[in-house]
Write a structure and sequence with these properties.
Keywords: Repeat, TPR repeat. The protein is an all-alpha fold. The chain has 3 domains: 1-167, Tetratricopeptide repeat domain (Serine Threonine Protein Phosphatase 5, Tetratricopeptide repeat); 169-249, Serine Threonine Protein Phosphatase 5, Tetratricopeptide repeat (Alpha Horseshoe); 253-388, Alpha Horseshoe (Serine Threonine Protein Phosphatase 5, Tetratricopeptide repeat), CATH 1.25.40. The chain has 20 helices and no strands. It has helices spanning 3-15, 17-27, 40-53, 56-82, 88-103, 107-124, 130-147, 150-167, 173-188, 192-209, 215-230, 234-246, 249-252, 257-272, 276-294, 299-314, 318-335, 341-356, 360-378, 383-387. Helix 12 (234-246) packs antiparallel against helix 14 (257-272) and helix 17 (318-335) packs antiparallel against helix 18 (341-356). The longest helix has 27 residues, at 56-82. The protein is globular.
Length: 388
């Protein structure tokens, strides 16, 4: 990368949240069909060849995967050039790049940066500082998403909450984010009542200080809907998901991960109501967005493959379901910790299909693996353990 462009990128990362968010958004939105050529006839001929031989969606996914890997290398180099300063600006730099890495599935790299940032924040700012709270939240997010360490994540989120309640106003947006984070973990641990309370507190804050069309408001609606779905309150869940989707596209962007989450959750409700074709359509829309924005090896892409597999299994298409479950399992085993509950979910789903196909030995092996993970991470009283 030329020095002037590297400096510009560095300033974007340091400068403000909009710069880092814009960087993240651009990583998955390169379109080959938008490329230029000096001669229009050549451009059209090339595009026609690409469309005939490969197809734009497949090539766009490959290009965006390469772009994400390249950007990771560039950002890692930027971190290394600043490492010796070990100051508050470096801590902020680590946090910002760590967020980009986490969103793009580079969880180990993200966790390393956030831990480095926390050590500096504690020395330079002390425990009761906004930057320290932010870093606790960032570490908790990685522990939740990548490691499946729900109790570790909850500990970090609660540490952030203690600080924020002390130094921020009760209606501060950062407080809403932490309530949301705690709610997500509580839902994972089966505490649906506690999760619902946290998400409703987050929504109340966001509605009081943000526009009703703000993306974070949509996130709250989506989170509340997901808890209601897990509580069996499907009509209430669908209502919340539709509220999330009613937020204008300008808040999401056409290919935003939050839009994929809304589609994903609506798909769950449609499936529960027996509308398998409708559910399949929503999950496939979500998968297309996630492949475009996140790349093929991201945990959320694995989630979409898994969801499609669940619908196909309900439709009696066991071969199709098994293919999707194995694809999901392959991604999760490669990017998540080996004891992550999502790995257990994929193992369980593979086992259930093998059972339907009469492969009882193979099914038992997968289900026992899933049970071992869930017992170690969730304990013997969690609903997911009872299922097995």
């Amino acid at each position: 990368m030329p020095p002037t462009e590297k400096l510009s990128l560095e300033q974007d990362v340091i400068g403000n949240d909009s710069g880092i968010n814009a960087l993240y958004e651009t990583l998955g939105n390169t379109k080959v069909e938008d490329a230029n050529a000096s001669v229009e006839a050549d451009r059209l001929a090339i595009l026609n060849k690409v469309e005939t031989d490969v197809g734009f969606p497949a090539l766009n996914n490959q290009v965006n995967d390469l772009l994400r890997h390249w950007m990771k290398d560039v950002l890692t180099q930027l971190v290394e050039t600043r490492e010796e300063t070990n100051d508050t600006e470096y801590a902020d730099f680590c946090n910002r790049i760590g967020v980009v890495f986490e969103k793009n599935g580079e969880h180990d790299a993200a966790l390393k940066l956030h831990i480095a940032a926390l050590a500096i924040c504690k020395v330079e700012f002390g425990e009761n500082h906004e930057s320290t709270a932010t870093t606790y939240n960032n570490i908790g997010t990685v522990l939740l998403q990548a490691k499946g360490d729900y109790r570790g994540a909850l500990s970090k989120f609660k540490a952030a909450l203690v600080i924020q309640e002390l130094i921020l106003g009760k209606d501060h947006p950062d407080l809403a984010t932490t309530y949301d984070n705690i709610g997500v973990v509580q839902e994972k641990l089966g505490d649906y009542g506690g999760a619902l309370s946290m998400h409703e507190e987050a929504l109340a804050i966001r509605l009081s200080v943000l526009s009703k069309d703000h993306l974070d408001v949509a996130v709250s609606y989506n989170n509340i809907g997901d808890v209601l779905r897990n509580m069996g309150k499907y009509e209430g869940a669908l209502s919340r998901f539709k509220q999330a989707l009613s937020i204008p596209e300008s808040a999401f962007g056409k290919n935003h991960p939050s839009l994929a989450s809304c589609l994903n959750n609506i798909g769950h409700v449609l499936q529960t109501n027996g509308d398998y074709q409708g559910a399949l359509s929503k999950h496939e829309e979500a998968l297309a967005i996630r492949l475009s924005v996140l790349g093929k090896d991201h945990p959320d892409v694995a989630k979409s493959h898994n969801n499609i597999g669940v619908v196909l299994r309900s439709m009696g298409d066991y071969e199709g379901a098994l293919s999707k479950f194995n694809e999901s399992l392959s991604i999760r085993e490669s990017v998540l910790s080996k004891n992550h509950p999502s790995v257990a979910s994929s193992l369980s789903n593979v086992g259930l299909v093998l059972q339907r196909q009469g492969d009882y030995s193979g099914a038992l092996s997968k289900l026992e693996e899933a049970l071992e993970i869930r017992l170690s991470v969730l304990g013997n009283k969690h609903p997911d353990v009872a299922v097995l």
